[in-house]
Structures are given as structure tokens and as C-alpha cells.
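Progress report, Aim 2. The chain analyzed during this reporting quarter is listed below.
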Amino acid sequence: PEDCNAKTKGYSASLLLLHLIGIEIGVTKRMIDDSTKQALIQELKESVDEIPNIIDQTKAWVKRNPHWQSATSLMVIGHFDHYATAMEGALKLSETLCIPAMACDVDEYAHGYHRILEDDSYVILIEGEGNGKDKLMKTIEYVRDKTPNHLVVRTSMDRVIPLDEIQVRSHRTLNSALTAVIVFQVLAIALPELLGVDPNVEKNPKYLSHLKTRIEGNTASH
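Predicted C-alpha cells for the chain:
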């Protein structure tokens, strides 16, 4: 359940459907056998079962870091599959906090965006599997030393979770794509609540009416 207009369920449902379509195409083309199919389906089910734990971790992190309500801008850095996670996360935070939130692939960050990093910047970094992981890990090290306002969403599990991290299980085949994004949906609600702001209140609603992309009285995004 998501009591917010800026929902991730559309994103998550689309991603889940694409995974399922990909699995069926793999079976049809005989690229994967039935046992592999069942293993992938099980990985999806385990991802869904993990959601309550991620929600709890994120709520606990927000409680430890209430100063994030004062952020005037945010940077979300990802790599490989999690560049898409960063884009979705930045969008949701921007929608509900009504501040600029920028998503960046770690390669592009190294090619120039790092120049806007300040001692008081607010940065979220997403670490998963795939290309750019080493660069992302080094970026995490640098950002940790540069600004205290950072959050690491990580799929490399440790027995003891550092206070600046939220950890999700390492679903290697599907790259934890269904689980890492949950962190951002919780942040998108919890941070506005700290400010006493209702994330469902429309801002500039006449813009969508002007575009004629929304039926009057319908608050769902199109």
C-alpha cells in the first residue's frame, strides 16, 4: 500500500512484468531451461518478501538522520542497472520534496558532475553488480570523506550494517532492481513528513490541466 500520489508501484509493476517477459522469451528461445526459470521466479518472490525489511531499515535511517529534511538539492548516483534506480529515486524525491534531485551514472559523475560536490551536499549512492561497480565503490569512499550527508544503498551484505547504509539482499541475476527502489519510496514519504508537508498536495496543478494530460478530479498521474 502506498498512500501517496508519487507511487513507485507503476515502476515496480512494469519492471516485474519485464522480468517475467524476459524469462518467458528465454524459455521459448531455449536459452534457459525450466530449472533456471524456476530459480528466477523464486528470486522474484524473495525480492517481494524482502520489502518489509527494507521499509523498516529505511524508516530507522530516517529517524537517525532527520536533518535530511533540510536538503535543498539531492544527487543520486548509480551504475549499470541501478542507473535506472537512481533516475526513479531522484524523480520521487523531487516530486514529494519539491526540490531539485538529480540522477547520475557513476561514469558521467566522474566526467564532470563531481565538480558540484560540496562539503554540505546530500548524496545517495546505489551499489549493485555490473559495470562500474569498482568506480562506484571508490566514489562511496570519496563521498564519505567529503560530506556527512550521504546514504549508501548496498547489495554487498555485511553482518553489521554501517549506520550510513541500507542493505538489500544481493539478487545477482536480477541485480536487486525490485528491492533497491523501495528505499526511495519510503524516503519520498518520510522526509516530507518530517517537514510537516503533505506529499500529496499538488504543486502547479494547472500545468497538467494546460497539457490536458489529466482528467479533472483525477489525482492519478498519467
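The first strand starts at residue 74 and ends at 78. The chain has a mean pLDDT of 90. These observations will guide the mutagenesis work planned for the next reporting period.
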